[in-house]
Write a structure and sequence with these properties.
By secondary structure, the protein is an alpha+beta fold. Helices cover about 25% and strands about 40% of the residues. The chain contains 5 helices and 8 strands; from the N terminus they run H-E-E-E-H-E-E-H-H-H-E-E-E. The chain has helices at about 10-20, 70-75, 105-110, 115-125, 135-145; strands at about 30-40, 45-55, 60-65, 80-85, 90-100, 160-170, 180-185, 190-195. Helix 4 packs across helix 5. It is elongated.
């Protein structure tokens, strides 16, 4: 895999790699990235989420605000995002701070969800214990029938977060294991670039 042209803006480089990763991706969840938070005992907690957008303001994902990750971000907004795009040989590691999306932005992303995803969001309480998972099917069917002709409104506990990066590392995989690692660190609103050994 050839090394991409060096850029002064790592967000732009992330966007270009992400766009490239979406082309001919073998994954069903093509925009899946791993987001890690810090739990109440100080341990990292990681899970995959759907990356919604990337801009100079940061990387956006959506979730239940009352979920484990939502609660953890409300207590400590220092997070990490990791992407591994095996089919093009790229890895990206992002460290930054997550801030909650405005209701306007959350509404915009809510409207991009399928109706079935919207219904499931209303029925489930993400991360909460459940005695029998099979009972959710009945709840979904009941909610679907009772709201058949109505648009599904965004629940108050559903929104999103924007990760504002302070550190971004790009790795280009090499078969000889001499991977190229380019590190950007934000200092006084300016990105400093350095290279790391593999």
């Amino acid at each position: 895999m050839a090394w991409s042209k060096t850029m002064n803006n790592p967000i732009e480089q992330f966007s270009q790699w992400w766009e490239q990763a979406l082309i001919d991706s073998p994954l069903k969840q093509k925009s899946a990235v791993c987001v890690s938070t810090i739990d109440q005992e100080g341990f990292p907690a990681a899970r995959f989420v759907d990356l919604k957008s990337v801009s100079n303001e940061g990387m956006v994902f959506c979730t239940y605000l009352s979920s484990q990750k939502g609660i953890e971000i409300s207590k400590c907004n220092k997070v990490a995002l990791t992407a591994w795009w095996d089919h093009i040989g790229y890895q990206v590691r992002v460290t930054g701070c997550a801030t909650r999306l405005s209701d306007i932005d959350a509404e915009k992303y809510w409207k991009t969800r399928t109706r079935s995803a919207q219904i499931t969001t209303h029925v489930c309480e993400q991360s909460q214990l459940i005695a029998n998972p099979s009972m959710l099917g009945g709840k979904v069917a009941e909610y679907t029938q009772s709201n058949e002709a109505e648009p599904i409104e965004r629940p108050v506990n559903w929104g999103g977060y924007r990760i504002k990066p302070i550190r971004i590392e790009f790795l280009t995989f090499k078969e000889d294991r001499l991977h190229i690692r380019e590190l950007y660190t934000l200092c006084n609103e300016k990105w400093n670039r350095a290279y790391l050994q593999p």
